[in-house]
Amino acid sequence: MLGAFEHQDTPLESLVLELHRGRAQSHAPLFRVVLTMQDLKGADLRLGNATITPVELDQTATKFDLTLLATERPDGLDLSLWYRTDLFAAGTADRLLGHLRTLLEAVVADPSRSVADVPLATQRERDQLTEWNSTQIDEGTPATFVELFEAQAARVPDRDALVTSAGACTYAELDARANALAATLRDKGVRRDIPVGLLLDRSIEAIVGLLGIIKSGGCYVPLSEDAPPARIAQQITECGATVVVTSEARAAGLPSGVAAVLVESAAASALPIASSVAPEALAYVLYTSGSTGVPKGVAVTHANIVHYARAVSRVLADIPASQAGDGFAQLDGLHFGLVSTLAADLGLTSVLPALLSGGTLHVLAKDVATEPARFADYVRDHPLDIVKMTPNHLTALTMGKTGRDLAPLLPRKWIVLGGEPLRIETARALLSANACRVLNHYGPTETTVGVCTFPVTAARVDDVAALGAQTVPIGYPLANSRAYVVDECNVEVPVGVLGELLLGGDGVARGYFGDDSRTAERFVSFRDERVYRSGDRVRRLANGAIEFLGRADDQVKVRGFRVEPGEIAAMLRTHPGVEAAEVLLRRDDDEDQLVAYVVPRTAGYAVSHTDRPTAERMREWVAAQLPEYMVPAQVMLIDTMPLTANGKLDRAALPVPGAGTAAGAESVAPRNEIEAQLCAIWSDVLKKDTVGVTDNFLSLGGHSLLAIRVLGKISKAFGVRLPLRTLFETPTVEALAAAITTARAGAAT
Q1: Which of 3, 62, 278, 600 stands the most exposed, by the fewest C-beta atoms within 10 Å?
Q2: What is the pTM of this model?
Q3: What is the DSSP code string of 24-45?
Q4: What is the domain extent for residue 591?
Q5: Model confidence pLDDT, tens digit, residues 595-625
Q6: pLDDT of residue 661
Q7: How high does pLDDT run on average in the chain?
Q8: Contact in structure between 561 and 344 (CB atoms under 8 Å)
Q9: CATH number of the domain that residue 26 is part of
Q10: Looking at 227, 248, 277, which one is the last position of a domain?
Q11: What is the average pLDDT across 242-261?
């Protein structure tokens, strides 16, 4: 401070030039907020017989974003705030002054009190925060998933419970097949809270397996069929499963010592199986990425999933907040679509309400859920009422259509979006179809699928945009759920203030399976309530809706999956030719991509071995161990990791990937019309200036959602439908062109 006074006469322009700070038209250089203190406590200023009295001017402009004038007077402190009206609303400015007044009054009342412990919110704001979390309602009698499903099987035994492209299964048939599987599992020693792997996906058999495991008393552990064997083995080891429900085709690849139970071999049994399940028993353990390199298993109980199914059904059925009960009766007979893997909990928004309300669950096979033409055919032939998916998945399947062109692809009642932020322009595009209602849904796995919802309408989108929201808010807590926005000292913050989101209520999971230390770290007490510390950075808008703003740690979302970049970096470091590795999420042309930075060893292995690190080998190394969505889109080999002055990684100094072809590759021009059209499609989807016929789709940053867009454009351009796996089996333009030629020839014969 004293040093500043010594240089108070230094011209601002000289300081700007000395610090090499560029000038911007939108704001002042160096600082944007000004605090001015004036002391008018002394005697009146006189010049001879003249008395000088300060006069407040009517100031209508400000040079800075915020200017706070504090004037000390004999009777107290006057505060005046000037603000830029293009950045701040009048209500925001009023709240800022109110928070400052609350702080000052608290300090005066108790000067020994720590400033960090003083709540900024006024009493009126604290009352409003309490009201927004007043969600308590009687949802129904405590029950298990098994009890509620069996009630529907008894009520509508002949109704289709499951439908796929290959066939259907009634409630009675599903119940009988699940009973038979449960009996087999009990014979193998499965009991309450014992984990059982479920290595089946997107089929009637997968739902039979899920239900059979739960009926046996065990908890299912979903294993992705798309994951590499090493990842599957790791999750089986982590949970300690000795039994895996799977198909004959996958049984041979299980680790030694693990028994395979083939779901297709379990004959249907009309004999009910005595339930040994209680609401507090585990229903499933779902593994998510872990920053230490080891995935975390979230343990979710029957009480959790029954609460979630009831609470979300209330939203889908428009049950008033003051009315007790669930919304199952209003959802009776509706058709739900499952378009995502069971290895993530996103699809449970369709599975649980469907099977507990007497609805029909359509299980879309992977090729149907990932190929725009097949998806369009399915929803045309099997109209759906409620579907949930990530916004990017929906955009890929609908190929960016809007208005009347988009309407036939949407469900009849609700499109539920979750897993990643919903952009305002995407919401407006969906609303332009005027086909169904739109619901934004949010919730970590640790709070059982979802905990907040925001019904999206054109008026609401306009309102939140006017309030400064960058994305569609995640909304308000479900029934019997609570959301607290707190600062670093666990003090709840008022509207507009950034903080971490704590989540409480009946959806809070038991914890991390077999990991008490991690559980104690993330599941904590707040106001005598057990809550989950989400790590999500949010703020409340003036209407009470919560807006997601990012993470307090390095965790990211990739195509709806939670990813810890540290786990990928740890895997890269296991390569004997790698000295150091870091992984970041970068946004490029509105596309989030994982980028890995690798420092190869400069001696020994890295110099002499034929497998020394290259970008492609590093991707292959990760792909052999981790799921496809965790494989970096780009790998950059660098000489050294840039560090800050205190020795930490300088993320801002890491190089930005270029937009050219794959590193070290020489572009080969297309040689025929098919290759030319494919190069143009790849260039458009992958945002590359140049694409050659020998370039690899994956090496250029391609992934499953981008592959869906490519396939949609191929279908439109060439009139052929290729399965998603084609692009991964033939990942170059020349190979894909040959596949298109073959498909055309086959269609002509």
Answers
A1: 3
A2: 0.84
A3: -SSS-SS-SEEEEEEE--SPPE
A4: 566-642
A5: 999 999 876 655 555 668 888 889 889 989 9
A6: 43
A7: 89
A8: yes
A9: 3.30.559.30
A10: 277
A11: 93
